[in-house]
Amino acid sequence: MNGSKGFGDNSHRGAFGEEFIRMLATAANLDVTRKERDRVGVDWQLGYAGRRGTRRFPAIEAQVKCTSSPDIHDDHIRYALKLKNYNQLAGPDYEMPRFLFLVLAPTDAFAWSYATEDHLLLRNAAYWLCLHDQQTLPLDNRSSTGTRTIHIPRANLLTVDSLHDLFAEDYRELVGAP
Question: What is the pLDDT of residue 41?
Fold first, then answer.
C-alpha cells in the first residue's frame, strides 16, 4: 500500500472513517452510539431527543466505509461494496432507516487531519446512500465474497445539515418504521 510506513492499513483507515462520522454527528448535536459487534451491518446508531410536538427520540443506523482510492465521476462515486454489506443495507425490512456512509480519506494517513489552535480539519469528505428501495441479492457459496458496485451521488455530501435531513419522515416511511 502507498502512504506512510506503518500507518493507513485497512483497520487504521476504517477507524478514521468511523471517527470522522462521530465528529460530524457530534457537531450536529446528535447522540452517537457505537455498535460493539458488527453482526448486522451497523457501526453507529445516531439519534436525538426530538423537539416537543415531533417524533420523540428518532434514530437512524449507519454502516461506515472508508477508502483512500475512490472512483470519482462528475456526479457520483462508484464503490464496490461486499455483497454481505450490501444485503445488510438493502430492502425495507428494518426498524429504523439505515444508511451507508462512505468516507474519502487521503492515501497518506498523516494528511488525514490538520490541527491548529483555531481549528481541526479532517480530510476529505463523507457521502451517504440509502439502499432501502433496493432488493437484496441472493448469496451462495460462490458469490458470498463478491461485490456489488454502487453509485453514491456526489450531491449526497454528508454535512451537519444533510445529517439532520436523514431523520426525515420519508425515510421512516420507506422502511415502514413507526
Answer: 82
- For residue 95 the three cell numbers come to 426498524
Choosing among 3.40.50.300, 3.40.50.2300, 3.40.630.30, 3.40.1350.10, the CATH entry for 10-175 is: 3.40.1350.10
CA distance 87 to 81: 10
* Residue at 15: amino acid letter: A
* Its pTM surpasses 0.90: no
> Is 119 exposed, middle or buried, given 0-12, 13-18 or 19+ CB atoms closer than 10 A?
exposed
Closest of 1, 171, 154 to residue 76, by C-alpha: 154
User: DSSP assignment of 39-95, as one string?
Assistant: SSS-SEEEE----TTS-SS-EEEEEEEEESS-EE-SSEEEEEEEHHHHHHH-SS--S
Higher pLDDT, 30 or 95: 30
pLDDT over threshold 80, residue 117 = yes
Mean pLDDT across the stretch 53-63?
77
Distances (CA, A) of 5 to 8, 17, 28, 56, 157: 8, 19, 34, 47, 30
Q: Measure Cα distances from 79 to 38, 57, 137, 139 in Å.
A: 20, 32, 17, 19
Angle at 33 between CA 44 and CA 98, to 5 degrees: 35
